[in-house]
């Protein structure tokens, strides 16, 4: 009898150990490897010293790692319950940014909370993923053909998009819209309804352009021909292309990149950190980093496929799409394929809000993997009239 009671007392510990064992530690290793690449590159960006970039970034990653493992332990039912409050909180923070936000480079994007600088638009993306997944988990696939059931989730997407555009932060607004569109499609939305929702896009683009600052409009008008203003709006992308090309196959060597070390490359620790990698490690180093990014994206998609509950599938897909769009926008930006939009390279670029947001997202992704066999709220199996 005493032995039985001891087993009952030890059961929660066994459950916790079982969940920890169920985490995809290979995926965690990939995350740590990419963060290690970021540390090494930020060490170079700081002139061969851990400060001011590498050491603070390592500390943030350590905090993010604990956050990620903690979130991975949370069951889907708890995530569903907190989805709505987290979304409401993210909207409140976005509104607060417009009224009392910290201005940086012509835009209001940060709040000072407890002495920490927080970028609410980063957390709004994760909150949106949870809110949409919780909503679509409640309705059946049959109801996806009724436009009335899609008005609330469409509003959930448009509200943060508009608030982020007013900061203005075009790059993040595009990512939020992309996350929403991908989750609508994955939830089973009819193609004709997707087309219907795309109709307002030109008007939103006009609205966005009208609220951009002069420097952002200059980025859009000069990205096709940056040489027209080489010392102004075109300077960043010109220097980025020079750094990308000068790396060659094997690079100029660690701590020996001319554009980065001589400070010709702007924002080398944030937006243009990939160009530092290409300059110092060449095509081989750049391809390796892109390979790591692809493995993380494909791993997230695999977790979405393996999840047996709709909520988990949608969360995994939304987080993977967020990471994919992060990478796509940043890499396209530094290569001159799209206008410069101020989007960092996840886990590599310097930044606290972006780092913690990405690690929070990975925690949710791992939670869907740990609880991939759980069944709850499967609305598609319910009889609907």
From TrEMBL:
Pathway: Cell wall biogenesis; peptidoglycan biosynthesis. The chain crosses the membrane at residues 20-42, 54-74, 86-103, 148-164, 170-186, 281-302, 314-338, 350-370. It is an enzyme of class 2 (transferase). It is a multi-pass membrane protein. It comes from Acetobacter malorum. This is Peptidoglycan glycosyltransferase MrdB. It is found in: Cell inner membrane; Membrane. GO terms for molecular function: lipid-linked peptidoglycan transporter activity; peptidoglycan glycosyltransferase activity. Belongs to the SEDS family. MrdB/RodA subfamily. GO terms for cellular component: cell division site; plasma membrane. GO terms for biological process: cell division; cell wall organization; peptidoglycan biosynthetic process; regulation of cell shape. Its EC number is 2.4.99.28. Keywords: Cell inner membrane, Cell membrane, Cell shape, Cell wall biogenesis/degradation, Glycosyltransferase, Membrane, Peptidoglycan synthesis, Transferase, Transmembrane, Transmembrane helix. Peptidoglycan polymerase that is essential for cell wall elongation. It catalyses: [GlcNAc-(1->4)-Mur2Ac(oyl-L-Ala-gamma-D-Glu-L-Lys-D-Ala-D-Ala)](n)-di-trans,octa-cis-undecaprenyl diphosphate + beta-D-GlcNAc-(1->4)-Mur2Ac(oyl-L-Ala-gamma-D-Glu-L-Lys-D-Ala-D-Ala)-di-trans,octa-cis-undecaprenyl diphosphate = [GlcNAc-(1->4)-Mur2Ac(oyl-L-Ala-gamma-D-Glu-L-Lys-D-Ala-D-Ala)](n+1)-di-trans,octa-cis-undecaprenyl diphosphate + di-trans,octa-cis-undecaprenyl diphosphate + H(+).
């Amino acid at each position: 009898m005493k032995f039985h009671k001891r087993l009952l007392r030890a059961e929660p510990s066994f459950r916790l150990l079982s969940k920890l064992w169920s985490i995809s530690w290979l995926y965690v290793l990939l995350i740590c490897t990419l963060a290690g690449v970021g540390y090494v590159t930020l060490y170079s960006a700081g002139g061969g010293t851990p400060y001011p970039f590498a050491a603070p970034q390592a500390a943030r990653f350590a905090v993010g790692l604990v956050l990620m493992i903690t979130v991975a332990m949370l069951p889907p039912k708890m995530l569903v319950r907190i989805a709505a409050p987290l979304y409401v909180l993210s909207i409140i923070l976005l509104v607060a940014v417009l009224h009392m936000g910290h201005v940086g480079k012509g835009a209001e994007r940060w709040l000072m909370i407890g002495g920490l600088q927080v970028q609410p638009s980063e957390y709004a993306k994760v909150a949106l993923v949870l809110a949409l997944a919780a909503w679509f988990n409640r309705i059946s696939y049959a109801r996806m053909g009724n436009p009335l059931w899609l008005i609330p989730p469409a509003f959930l997407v448009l509200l943060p998009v508009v608030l982020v555009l007013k900061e203005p932060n075009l790059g993040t607004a595009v990512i939020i819209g992309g996350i929403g569109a991908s989750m609508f499609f994955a939830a089973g939305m009819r193609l004709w309804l997707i087309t219907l929702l795309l109709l307002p896009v030109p008007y939103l683009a006009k609205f966005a352009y009208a609220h951009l600052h002069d420097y952002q409009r200059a980025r859009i008008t000069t990205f096709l021909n940056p040489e027209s203003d080489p010392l102004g709006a075109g300077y960043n992308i010109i220097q980025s292309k020079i750094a990308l090309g000068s790396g060659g196959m094997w690079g100029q060597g660690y701590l020996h990149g001319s554009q980065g070390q001589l400070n010709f490359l702007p924002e080398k620790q944030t937006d243009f950190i990939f160009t530092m990698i290409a300059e110092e490690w060449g095509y081989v180093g750049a391809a390796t980093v892109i390979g790591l990014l692809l493995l993380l994206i494909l791993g997230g998609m695999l977790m979405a496929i393996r999840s047996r509950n709709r909520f988990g599938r949608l969360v995994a897909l939304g987080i993977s799409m967020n990471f994919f769009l992060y990478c796509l926008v940043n890499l396209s930006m530094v290569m001159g394929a799209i206008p410069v939009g101020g989007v960092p390279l996840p886990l590599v670029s310097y930044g606290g809000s972006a780092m913690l947001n990405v690690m929070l997202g990975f925690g949710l992704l791992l939670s869907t993997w740990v609880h991939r066999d759980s069944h709850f709220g499967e609305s598609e199996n319910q009889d609907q009239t």
